[in-house]
Every structure is written in structure tokens, then in C-alpha cells.
Inverse folding.
């Protein structure tokens, strides 16, 4: 490369970095559009609108009806934000909290609508058409079917022309079906009716099939579909077919699922609430990120010299691009989202460390700097791709199948992984080529790998297995003791088990900073748990959420407010609230993790051509999760929404670390053969040891700074994450390789020696 071209590359890089940084700080116009301050923040970081609905009618609704209504409202609010919360308050109220919304009026009418999904017969009792078929033409001149309702809903109900309601549908899912005649597959919507709806649907399809009529699905003033019924459907299931894409089938299924609420709701009140994590949550997170990045830059330069300098520049661009694209894709940033960014930064550093270690190894064999850099990047490619793709697969599955904060975590992780691979494999490479062309050709700028004596990791597997087993079993023992003493194995927060919501009207408006310093410590001393404050904008009201409070605790709280703040009993409203993490979200998360693990196993099997690598990787991953779970039990760290983000971060981190080592094992099989499996594994772990330690250290630094500077809720997230990072390094070095060795001895395959 000529010097002129090298100068042009560096100049272009700094111009791009300056441009992206400027947009992050100032935006693209005078109003700060597309800047970091324009990013939509979640309820935990910035607050949003809180709406409380009251169930109409006499008598308390059943818990089953309440849970069904909550589930369908959750589906409705997803159109506004995947980070929205829906939970029960008292016996007959439902509370909805939506981030990034300041005008409640825009969404109030939509959310509280009762069941508006109808299955309508084509003809009424008098033989006249309830709806007529026509055609509409779009802007491109394409024709499509359209339908017009000829009667009002009230008239249809009086006539008996409504066969079923949305409440009669148990589930609706997009799927595919194969034509028995042609063998071609097409997308469809699979319907399952409730027990009550099964007979109604059988009667409706029998009537429609006998008369050759259609049965229209009508929602919110729009015809979703009007399928022809070919035969009676008596088992409570059906398929809606048509010229569907997967997206259109999935949209129709979603509309059917949320089309009917079990209960009729009326708005009780709405209010704009503040951040759940406190006033300093965002500022401390930004400060922690800046300090953490600064420490990582210093570390990388100190350890890897010129390579570290190039990587640091690429890391700065990576960080600026992440901020820009989070805004560009309209992602809602929450604490779990920050976790995804932290993990992706760790993986970005990891990719560079793998490359630099390879370069030093090549220099140690006598290669020229130019040749070593090229070969180092080439040899590092497979480890980087395999490590990132396995984590990326998990993130994509979590994005598609997850909900709430899980989806937010996955979105930022997918974005971060894609950018980290780009900056490591392309930006860092071109920066190093440019620096070389400008005269940085001496080995002293790169460093030469030192040959380390191979440590017998496999030979000491009994010791390491024993330590892990003791930690895991100890965790289960502590959970059992906690269960006996406290009734709960883990310190579940209100996110999982519900709790108490206390609305206090103060005599004057308090700032969030005042609330955090003057009120929260007194309430936490009474409740024995963390307390989430949410000030209501424009009022003197503050909503406090904590774990369930006993009668004595409620009395003590009222006395505290009376003596310390001069607040009377009628200024305090206390309600029991349900968990903010729904059962559906728990099921979705567990299912998504299971599917993600299967996908990772398949990928590892295909890439490594040995399922034992995959089994060992997953076993090491589960080991890390169980150890962290043990820590939660022993330290009694609050288990809330951040727990899910923490576990998912550990899953992604652990699999990546292990895959890098196994990639080296696979490579050494070619060089050393399989005759001495023990030596190959020990040598591979030794060769990648610096990578394992340095990557873990840099990621640990990021989280540690977040812990030191963060508010209480952030610390409850950062502390177990630090344990998980440490455990991930331990399992990848001391556990995974030994597990693979054991499996090879237990399950020999063709080609083994």
C-alpha cells in the first residue's frame, strides 16, 4: 500500500468517526434528531405513561379472565413498545406502563376496547347479504378483494348472524400447509377454539359448508378475511388459506389473537411517570461506559502496542455506530439493552484479541510483519465467525420468540455483534495496513508471542469438576434452606411474584433526587426489599413499588410518612399488584432459550462435524448459569427483570468463549493429529489462554465500572454479571475441554485414535 493511500484511509476513518460522533452528540438538525438524546428509553431509564383500567360490571372478575385480558392487552401494547408492562392491580384493575409515550390520549381509546372480533355469516336469517364482495385497486393498479358490511353490528347480533366472537378463539398462529394434490407448500393461519367456541364453530362451519357461503372475520371496522368453508370443522381447529406471505399470515394471526378482550374495561386514570431506576440511571450508565471504554483503550494499547491502538480506534467507531443505529432502527433502550451492548463490546474486544494473538504467534515463527498480519487475520477468521455466529443465532431466536425486555436485549445484541464483526475484520485490518504503510514495520510495535509450557488442564479435571460440583450443589442446598426459612428459594422481586404499590400524595412536589435520598432508604428499611419510585409528572404524587408488604409493614410505613413528612392516612393509597413479568413471557423466554441451544448445537455439529463439541459447549454454558444461580441464592440478590438479562448475557458470553478454544482444538487436530487427545486439548487451551483472560478482563472492567457508579438496581444487575463473566472464563479454560475429553472416551467416533 502506498503512503498516499494510507493517509487517505486514515483521513476517511477520522472523518467518518467525527461525523458519526457529531450526529450522536448534536443530531442532524437543531432539534437533536438522531442524536443520543433522541433514543427512546424504556420505563426503567426514562419512564412513560401509566394507564389504569377498571373492570366494568358487578362482582369481582375471575382470575382466569383477568389473566386472559392481561395477555391480550400485552399483545396490543406491543404496537407501541415491546418494553411495555401490563400487570394486575388489586382484584379488578389492570395497569399498563408504556415507555416513550407522553400523551396518553393518543392510545387510551385503542387499548381499552372490549372484544371487537366477529365471525359473521355471509347471509342473514332473511336471506339477504350481511356483507358484499367487491374489488379495490391500489396505486400500482393491482386488484384485490374487498368487502363491505351492509348492516350494523347491533343488527347482526339481533339477527343471530354473528357466529363467534374473539373470545371464542383460544389461539391463532401463522403456519404452512402442503397441498395434497400439487405438493406445494403455502402459508396459512391455524386457529384453535376454546371449549365454549368449539361447538359454535362446528355449527357455523356446518351451516356455511351446506350453503356454500363464506364466513367473514371482522375486526375493528375491517374485514380481515372471508374464507370459503369447504366442509364442517368439528374438532375446534381450522386453517385460513389464501394468497398469504408469512408476514401477512402472521399479521392476521396476531389480529385474531388480540381481537377480543375477556372483560370490558373503563379508564380509571392515566398519568406520566418517571424512570424506575432513578434520576441518575442514564447519566451513570453513560459515565460508566465512557470510563470503561477509556480503561479498555489504555489496556489494549499497553498490552498489544500498535495493534491495540488500531483496535481502540475501531472500538471508538463501533461505539459511535451502535448509538447511531439504535436510534436509526427505533430500538427502545432499557437496562437489558445496555447488557446486550456490554456483551457485544466484549465480543468486539475478543475478536481483536484473537487476531492479535495470531499475529504474535506468526511473528514468533519468523514471519515478516506484513506476512504475519495477513496470516493472523486469515487464521483468526474461523474462530471469530464461529464464536459470533453461535451467539448471533441465540440472539436472533430470542428476538423472534422472546417478548418484553428479552426482545430488547436480543435486538441490541444482534446489532452489536454485526457491528463488532465488521469493525474487527474490516476496520481494524485496514487501519493496521495503513499504519504499516506509514512506516510502522518493526516487530517491536506488534510484539512476539512467547512459548508457554503447556499446563495439564485435562489431567486435573477431577479437581476442577469437584470445585464446580461443590459450587452448584452448595447453591441448591442454600436454595433449599431459603425455601424453608423464607418460603422462597430465591429473593424474587415484584417483577416475578408481584408486590405492593403505594401511591403517596406529598404536601409539595419532590424531585426524584429528593425521593431517592430522603424517602427510599426509610421505605427499604421497613419493607426489607428494594423500592422502585415513580413520580407522577405535574403532581405531588409518587408511586412506590416494593415486594409484598405485611399489615405491620403497611402500618409502619404510614406512621413513617406521618412523622417524617406530615402525610395523613387519606393521602396514601395501597394496592396489591401482580408480577410485571407475565407467565407468557416466562414461557416464551424458556422456549426461546431451548430453541437457541438447539440451533447452536446444530451449527456446531455442522461446522465442527462432531456433536461432542456442541454437547461440551452447552454443558459449560449450563454450568455457568447454575453457578450464577447459586450466587443469587447465597447473596440473596434480587431476582427481577434484570435477572433474565443477566442470564442471557452469560449464555451468549459463555458459548463464545468456549467456541474459540474448540476452534483451536479443531485446528490442532490437523497439525498434531488425534493420537494424543489429551495433549491436543491442553496445548489448545494454553495457546488461547491469553485471549481467554484478556477478553474476560476487559468485559469485567466494563461491568465493574457500571457496578461502582450505578444506582441500586444497576448494581443488582452488574454484581451477578461479574460473577458470570468470571465463571465463563473458568468454565471455558478448566471445564469445557475436559468435558470434551471425557465425551471422546465415553462416545468414540470414527476417526478417533
Amino acid at each position: 500500500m502506498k503512503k498516499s493511500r494510507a493517509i487517505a484511509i486514515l483521513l476517511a476513518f477520522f472523518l467518518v468517526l467525527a461525523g458519526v460522533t457529531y450526529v450522536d452528540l448534536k443530531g442532524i438538525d437543531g432539534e437533536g434528531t438522531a442524536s443520543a438524546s433522541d433514543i427512546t428509553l424504556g420505563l426503567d431509564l426514562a419512564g412513560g405513561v401509566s394507564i389504569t383500567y377498571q373492570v366494568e360490571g358487578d362482582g369481582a372478575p375471575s382470575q382466569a379472565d383477568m389473566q386472559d385480558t392481561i395477555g391480550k392487552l400485552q399483545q396490543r401494547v406491543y404496537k407501541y413498545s415491546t418494553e411495555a408492562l401490563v400487570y394486575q392491580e388489586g382484584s379488578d384493575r389492570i395497569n399498563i406502563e408504556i415507555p416513550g409515550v407522553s400523551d396518553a390520549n393518543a392510545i387510551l381509546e385503542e387499548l381499552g376496547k372490549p372484544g371487537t372480533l366477529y365471525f359473521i355469516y355471509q347471509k342473514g336469517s332473511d336471506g339477504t347479504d350481511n356483507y358484499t364482495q367487491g374489488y379495490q385497486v391500489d396505486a400500482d393498479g393491482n386488484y384485490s378483494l374487498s368487502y363491505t358490511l351492509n348492516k350494523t353490528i347491533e343488527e347482526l347480533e339481533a339477527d343471530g348472524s354473528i357466529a363467534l366472537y374473539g373470545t371464542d378463539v383460544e389461539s391463532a398462529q401463522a403456519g404452512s400447509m402442503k397441498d395434497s394434490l400439487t405438493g406445494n407448500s403455502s402459508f396459512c393461519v391455524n386457529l384453535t377454539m376454546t371449549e365454549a367456541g368449539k361447538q359454535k364453530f362446528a355449527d357455523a362451519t356446518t351451516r356455511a359448508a351446506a350453503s356454500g357461503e363464506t364466513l367473514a372475520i371482522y375486526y375493528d371496522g375491517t374485514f380481515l378475511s372471508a374464507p370459503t368453508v369447504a366442509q364442517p370443522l368439528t374438532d375446534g381447529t381450522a386453517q385460513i388459506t389464501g394468497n398469504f406471505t408469512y408476514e401477512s399470515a402472521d399479521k392476521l394471526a396476531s389480529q385474531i389473537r388480540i381481537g377480543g378482550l375477556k372483560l370490558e374495561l373503563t379508564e380509571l386514570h392515566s398519568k406520566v411517570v418517571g424512570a424506575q431506576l432513578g434520576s441518575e440511571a442514564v447519566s451513570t450508565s453513560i459515565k460508566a461506559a465512557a470510563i470503561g471504554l477509556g480503561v479498555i483503550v489504555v489496556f489494549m494499547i499497553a498490552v498489544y502496542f500498535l495493534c491495540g491502538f488500531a483496535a481502540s480506534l475501531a472500538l471508538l467507531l463501533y461505539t459511535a455506530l451502535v448509538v447511531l443505529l439504535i436510534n436509526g432502527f427505533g430500538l427502545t433502550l432499557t437496562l437489558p439493552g445496555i447488557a446486550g451492548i456490554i456483551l457485544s463490546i466484549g465480543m468486539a474486544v475478543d475478536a481483536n484479541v484473537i487476531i492479535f494473538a495470531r499475529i504474535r504467534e506468526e511473528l514468533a515463527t519468523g514471519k515478516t510483519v506484513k506476512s504475519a498480519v495477513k496470516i493472523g487475520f486469515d487464521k483468526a477468521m474461523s474462530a471469530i465467525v464461529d464464536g459470533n455466529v453461535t451467539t448471533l443465532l441465540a440472539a436472533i431466536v430470542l428476538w423472534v420468540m422472546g417478548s418484553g425486555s428479552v426482545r430488547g436485549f436480543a435486538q441490541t445484541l444482534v446489532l452489536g455483534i454485526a457491528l463488532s464483526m465488521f469493525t474487527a475484520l474490516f476496520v481494524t485490518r485496514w487501519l493496521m495496513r495503513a499504519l504499516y504503510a506509514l512506516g510502522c514495520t518493526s516487530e517491536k510495535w506488534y510484539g512476539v508471542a512467547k512459548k508457554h509450557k503447556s499446563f495439564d488442564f485435562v489431567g486435573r479435571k477431577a479437581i476442577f469438576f469437584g470445585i464446580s460440583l461443590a459450587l452448584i450443589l452448595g447453591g441448591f442446598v442454600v436454595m433449599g434452606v431459603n425455601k424453608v426459612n423464607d418460603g422462597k428459594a430465591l429473593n424474587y422481586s415484584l417483577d416475578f411474584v408481584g408486590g405492593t404499590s403505594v401511591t403517596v400524595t406529598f404536601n409539595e412536589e419532590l424531585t426524584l433526587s429528593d425521593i431517592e435520598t430522603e424517602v427510599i432508604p426509610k421505605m427499604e428499611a421497613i419493607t426489607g426489599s428494594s423500592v422502585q419510585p415513580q413520580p407522577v409528572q405535574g403532581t405531588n404524587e409518587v408511586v412506590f413499588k416494593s415486594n409484598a408488604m405485611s399489615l405491620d409493614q403497611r402500618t409502619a410505613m404510614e406512621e413513617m410518612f406521618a412523622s417524617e413528612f406530615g402525610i395523613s392516612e387519606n393521602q396514601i393509597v395501597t394496592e396489591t399488584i401482580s408480577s410485571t413479568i407475565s407467565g407468557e413471557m416466562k414461557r416464551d423466554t424458556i422456549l426461546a432459550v431451548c430453541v437457541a441451544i438447539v440451533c447452536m448445537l446444530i451449527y456446531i455439529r455442522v461446522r465442527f462435524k462432531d456433536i461432542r463439541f456442541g454437547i461440551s459447549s452447552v454443558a459449560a454454558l449450563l454450568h455457568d448459569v447454575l453457578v450464577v444461580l447459586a450466587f443469587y441464592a447465597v447473596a440473596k440478590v434480587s431476582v427481577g427483570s434484570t435477572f433474565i438479562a443477566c442470564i442471557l448475557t452469560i449464555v451468549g458470553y459463555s458459548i463464545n468463549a468456549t467456541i474459540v478454544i474448540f476452534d483451536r482444538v479443531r485446528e490442532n487436530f490437523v497439525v498434531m493429529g488425534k493420537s494424543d487427545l489429551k495433549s491436543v486439548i491442553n496445548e489448545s487451551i494454553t495457546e488461547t489462554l491469553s485471549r481467554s483472560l484478556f477478553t474476560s478482563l476487559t468485559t469485567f472492567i466494563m461491568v465493574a465500572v457500571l457496578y461502582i457508579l450505578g444506582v441500586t438496581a444497576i448494581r443488582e444487575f452488574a454484581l451477578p454479571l461479574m460473577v458470570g463473566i468470571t465463571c465463563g472464563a473458568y468454565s471455558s479454560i478448566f471445564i469445557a475441554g475436559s468435558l470434551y475429553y471425557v465425551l471422546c472416551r465415553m462416545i468414540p467416533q470414527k476417526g478417533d485414535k
Observations:
- The chain has 21 helices and 19 strands.
